[in-house]
Amino acid sequence: MIKRISIVLLMVTNGLFAQNGTDKVLVTDMNKIKTIGSVNLSPDGKKVIYSVRTDEPSEENKLEFDYRSHIWVSDFQTNKQLTRGLESVGSAAWSPDGKQIAFARGVKGKSQIFIMPLDGGEAFQLTDLKQGASNPTWSPDGTKILFSVGTTVNEMLKDTLLNPSKALPSWSFEKAGFKDNTFLKPDKKVKPNPDGSLAEIRAYLDKDVEDKKAKVFSRLNFQGEANTDPEIRFNLLFVIEVKEGAKAKQLTHGFWSYNGATWSADGKKIFASCGRDTTLHPDREQNSAIVSMNADGSDLKYIIAKKGVSYSNPTPSPDGKLIAFTQSEVSWLGFNQLLIANTDGNNITPIVFDRASGNLEWTDDSKALYMTAPSNGGTPIYKLDITTKKVEKLTDFNSGITAFDIAKDKIAFAKTEVKNPSELYISDLLVKAPVKLTALNDEWLKTKAISFPEKRTYKNSKGLTVEYWIMKPANMESGKKYPLLLNMHGGPTAMWGPGESSMWHEFQYFCSQGYGVVYANPRGSGGYGKDFQFANYQDWGTGPAEDVLAAASDAAKESWVDTSKQVLTGGSYAGYLTAWIVGHDHRFKAAFAQRGVYDLTTFMGEGNAWRLVPNYFGGYPWEEKIKPILERESPYTYIDKIKTPLLIKHGENDLRTGVIQSEMMYKSMKIMGKEVEYVRMPGGTHELSRSGNIRQRIDRMLRIYEFFERYVGKK
């Protein structure tokens, strides 16, 4: 029985519903949005380099667009583009003297590191490794670059530079029928022969794999985002002197990854995170530890490690005394919590802060640590005072800080908000009077009718306060009725709000098309603390559906809503929730389920996000106590109850949730004679709506609109 829900209307201030113009936000305006990526202040705080992502018309096909990302520099008065060309540059790092930058750019299909002097000289290529190089980080004295190299087991077995001792993995490869890893070193004298000896047959089968006639899986996590992959990949650390012709030196060895590598303040040590137990197969070892090593790779040791915990984001302080990092429990639902310790790993101090911290940055004097954390519909900047251990919020919930950096007495940051999806700002460290440095989106936005959300809250049946937002149709006419779209987020730990950028265009497009939009952060969402985020344990359907439907019910009371014309959509977990709702509630005239999970048992095999099953539901499909829970929580169980016309979409190469999830729903509904349509996107992955093929992203938006118009539009 759902408790009576109390609605609290929050005060609207500062012209919340004001609009800039009267022109509609068009579907193709998606291609006009320019987005700030990385942000890096010079060491003296007098300049900032930042990346800008744009959508550029394809030279080969006028209907297609390509993503481009390039580096710009600003002295806070003028902005200048530094990199150009077809190869994107996502981020760059300042040298300690502020005279050069390092960045990674593609060369013949592999990322390599370049050095660019800022006095007008030409950039030169620093690395030339066949595996590629990425993530350049300057040593404190500016003489060396620490970087990462990605490789695979097979590459390491064949490459005597990466693996000079010709060692085999210390962990079991888990190949059925073999007790050790000696099969990884076949006798090269044996020739492939399908009619030969067992050794020759094995050589023949290995040749088939080499020639891509077969894929053989022995690993647990064989599904990537877009393709299945039998290869196990690693991230190794290298260092190179900053001069033309220099040779890189390998710092880490063995069949294991090292991530988030950074220098100590004095340049004598390097910190990184890596797996805790190197005897476990990398697919099975979910624990990670913080390690330190000397600058030459020697004396590698674990300084922060604990069973059942994953440590990441090692960030040493400029004075060399402390290291900040985050931790998350791996056996249940993850939640990044902030901690501080001495740089030797002693005196670990958890910080009392009930948000998931990220993007850690120290002030130059080491007295404060800045971070961002999704919270209450936005992503504010927070400041931790190292002495008092108190956390202070510096920016608001109605905007989102997507990247930032600190130097001297300044902070530069990229911000998203309803009135503009992405711009760059500079401010003092209290962020009291930020100055806008860019005008990436001002020109095309100035004539557009922008709909601003109205925030409301209610208490759900668990006593949790749920936030939601209502957006009126753009250019709304008095006395006219409009359809209402309930749009839901995935994750399930995602969070939406005025300060979340990924839905900016979609929300504004539908408001321009004459739809009102309501969206909520139901139980299980991020941004409201650990208890709220874990409140959907073994309850993916009933509880979260209660929360989003309560938001929809309240929005439907608005005088401008045509209650007979309500529609519903969501992707990923919200694709799940869309299917759940139409199997339990029949108020919606049409629904669109995107890249969802509909049967939790088959999801175990089909999706690379399969660990959501044991983590959220307490076990596996073959366990007797878990079987009824998975059946109860699967939308597919209630497919015969669906009366709402349903459009289902999935990317053909989506391996996060798996395409058969949608095809089970579609085929079953079709057999039962229900109104259903299925769209399968060739080459599309789970990230289609965010970073996929731009033409397909436009197609997706138009298909939602066109399908809904069949049922709520003018016939």
From TrEMBL:
Organism whose genome encodes this protein: Flectobacillus roseus
InterPro entries in UniProt: 6-blade_b-propeller_TolB-like (IPR011042), AB_hydrolase_fold (IPR029058), Peptidase_S9_cat (IPR001375), WD40 (IPR011659)
Record lineage: Bacteria, Pseudomonadati, Bacteroidota, Cytophagia, Cytophagales
Protein name: S9 family peptidase
Signal peptide feature range: 1-18
Keyword ATP-binding: no
Keyword terms of this UniProt record: Hydrolase, Protease, Serine protease, Signal
EC number(s) recorded for this UniProt protein: 3.4.-.-
MF annotations from Gene Ontology: hydrolase activity
Domain Peptidase S9 prolyl oligopeptidase catalytic span(s) in chain numbering: 505-714
